[in-house]
Amino acid sequence: MHPATSIFIKWWESLLSSTDQTLFGEKLDLELAQQPPEFWGDGVNDFEPHDTFDRIYQLLFKETSKGPPVEDEPEHALEQRPAPYTFVERDGKLDAVPLDNTATDEDVAADLHAETLRNLEELQDRLKATQAPDWLMRTLGRLAEALGEDLSAIKPGTLLSRLNALETAEISYNSDEGRREVSADVPAAISALAEDLRDLRTFFPALREAEARRIGFDVADSDLEAVSAGLKRVADAGEASDALTDAARVAAREFEAEADSQLEVIATSSNDGLVAQARISASRSLARGLQTSRNMVAATAAALQKIIDKIPTDTLEAIKDALETGGIHQLAAGERYALAALLVALAGPLGTLAAFSAPSRILHKRLVQMIDAELKRRADGDRGDDSNAA
Question: What is the SS3 string spanning 232-292?
Answer without folding.
Answer: HHHHHHHHCCCCECHHHHHHHCCCHHHHHHHHHHHHHCCCHHHHHHHHHHHHHHHHHHHHH
